[in-house]
Each structure stands twice: as structure tokens, then as C-alpha cells.
Design goal:
five-stranded mixed β-sheet, alpha+beta, 3 domains, three-stranded antiparallel β-sheet, 434 Repressor (Amino-terminal Domain), Immunoglobulin-like, 7 helices, 8 strands, about 210 residues
């Protein structure tokens, strides 16, 4: 008597299908299909899953699934052929890890709003309590120049006030500033201070040497 695997293989070859084509259409791994056709049940997962393979395989080949399962039950003995879970069976070809549902959408929206809310609170805290950001781009520290005139430039928070050597200067809407100053000594210290609306300050100092 022919086995269910032989029936499936004969019909597959009769219709000129390859195992790769069967795998692609049924989503059953090729090595499982080969084991099924060869009757190597020790290489297959438990009986319930094998029956599912036979139904899908038979349906694709347009065979009577009930007759195939009857043949399978006659030849298969779970005691004689203990199944084992293959690594490929643990990782099927297509497995959807995430399914979009209304509760998940709502949860994502709520989570997003919470993140935005706390981000806003952090920004407000940083703005009202924290010291302002300040970066002096030029001049570099310990710079030597031949002229007593030098441009001091940098950037800070747009709302902050900036002073250079105790003289307040203009800051544009992006927080950038640039101001030319005159140095009097051979070694001059430039102090740039950014002051937030809450009165917090950030200070950067530069030392410049003027060659006479």
C-alpha cells in the first residue's frame, strides 16, 4: 500500500511542481515537505501539525484531503515515530509579530501624547530654571592677533540676553550674535555672558593676545 507521502509526491511530479513551488504556495518548509514525502515522521513535528501539512499540500494538488488523512492515520504510529520539533518549524516562513488593532492604535496615541507632555514640561523646566545654552564660536582661546579690533560671535537661546565685557549686545531670532570689540591691552580677556529670563547665567571666557 502506498503511503500518503508517495501519493503526494506522485501527484506533485505528475503536475510538474517542484518542492520550492510547493513551499512558496503552502508556506511549509521544504525540508518538512521532503520528510513528509519520504515518510520520515521522526523528522516532523507532532501529528496534529502533520495533518495540517497534509491538508494544505493535498488542497494545493487538488486531492481529497480526507482520503489522504485516512491513509496517514493507517500508516502513522506516534509511538513508533516519536516526533521532534525542527528548528525550521520553530521559525515559520511568515510570522506576523505585530497586528494593528484599535486598542493598540489608541494606546500608541496616548503614549505619544504623554511623551509630548513630559517633553514640554522638561523644556519649560529647562527654560525657566536651567542656565541658558552658550557657545562662543570666535575668537578661539589663546588667539594671537595683530589688530586690536576683533569680532566675537556665537549662539545662545533665542530668549537669552548676551553681554560682552559687561556690554549688552543684540541677539537675533535664532539666538546668534556677532559683535566687533576693541581690545586695549596686549593680553585681553573677553567675557561673554548669556542670561536667561529667570536670571540664570552661563559664562564663557576667552584670552586674546594683541601683537603691537
Amino acid at each position: 500500500m502506498r503511503t500518503v507521502g508517495q501519493l503526494l509526491k506522485e501527484e506533485r511530479e505528475k503536475k510538474f511542481y517542484t518542492l520550492d513551488e510547493i513551499e512558496k504556495s503552502t508556506k511549509i518548509r521544504k525540508e518538512l515537505l521532503e520528510a513528509l514525502e519520504m515518510g520520515e515522521y521522526e523528522k516532523l513535528p507532532p501529528q496534529t501539525f502533520v495533518q495540517g501539512f497534509i491538508k494544505n499540500y493535498g488542497k494545493f494538488l487538488e486531492l481529497d484531503s480526507e482520503k489522504l488523512l485516512a491513509v496517514f492515520r493507517r500508516e502513522f504510529s506516534e509511538g513508533k515515530n516519536p516526533p521532534r520539533i525542527l528548528e525550521s518549524f520553530k521559525n515559520p516562513i511568515e510570522k506576523k509579530w505585530f497586528k494593528l488593532t484599535p486598542p493598540k492604535v489608541l494606546g500608541s496615541v496616548v503614549l505619544g501624547l504623554i511623551i509630548i507632555f513630559f517633553g514640554y514640561l522638561w523644556f519649560e523646566y529647562k527654560f525657566l530654571v536651567g542656565s541658558p545654552f552658550l557657545e562662543v564660536i570666535e575668537p578661539e582661546d589663546q588667539l594671537s592677533i595683530s589688530s586690536s579690533n576683533i569680532t566675537v560671535s556665537g549662539r545662545t537661546d533665542p530668549e537669552a540676553k548676551v553681554s560682552i565685557n559687561d556690554q549688552q549686545i543684540q541677539v537675533d531670532q535664532n539666538g546668534k550674535f556677532a559683535q566687533e570689540i576693541k581690545l586695549s591691552d596686549n593680553s585681553s580677556s573677553i567675557t561673554v555672558v548669556a542670561t536667561s529670563q529667570s536670571g540664570k547665567q552661563t559664562k564663557v571666557e576667552r584670552t586674546v593676545f594683541v601683537k603691537r
